[in-house]
Write a structure and sequence with these properties.
Blueprint: E1 3-19, E2 27-39, E3 44-51, H1 60-73, H2 82-93, H3 97-114
């Protein structure tokens, strides 16, 4: 199964009610970052992660940039060997856990399609 295209799409999600935590400003939105993998045979797999400086401790722009860096490497990886592929992303980009979450979900979605 060969990945031919990877697209990273950030989406700002407004919360219906702000999340309130002691000592922190109200959280009224989060950034969801979607990762879409496309294969040579036209299959599409999805992964997602979220980022908010106060909720997850991660700055959305940093997570988006890291996802885009990983997206450049993914076509050269073997997505069915998920542990190897994630290890390669860590080794080559030092990807934070939020980024690995998005790609882990996308690789598992692809594995499900292959099964």
């Amino acid at each position: 199964m060969q990945i031919t295209r990877v697209k990273v799409t950030p989406v700002e999600l407004k919360l219906l009610k702000p999340a309130k935590m002691a000592g922190l400003p109200d959280i009224d939105s989060i950034t969801a970052i979607f990762v879409r993998l496309e294969t040579k045979h036209g299959q599409t797999a999805w992964g997602c992660t979220v980022a908010n400086q106060y909720l997850t401790g991660e700055i959305p722009q940093d997570i988006i940039k890291a996802c885009q860096e990983c997206a450049e490497l993914v076509p050269d990886l073997h997505p069915i060997d998920i542990e190897y592929s994630l290890d390669q992303l860590i080794a080559q980009t030092n990807a934070p856990p939020a980024v690995l979450c998005a790609f882990d979900l996308a690789f598992h979605d692809l594995l499900g399609l292959a099964a």
